[in-house]
Amino acid sequence: MSETFQMEVEYTDTFGGEANYCWVHRVTLTLPVGISDTAIMRRAKAAVGLTGARGRTENHGDMLKFVPYRCCTVLFVQTVY
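The structure corresponding to this sequence follows.
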């Protein structure tokens, strides 16, 4: 059996460019070790219904942040320890 790890996905609204958490959609993904950041974001976006959405992705080490264009929302993907 191959090794896996878990990442927590949080999709929430923004206010003034910052995460607001008025509403939030959370999902936990189980991913194989060695998966690329692009593949992680593809799966995270699909899990919250953002497949095909364009935006800006930022890598903060153990956290990825995706800000969709023309939408007041943000997506965070963090490693679960």
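The mean pLDDT is 96.
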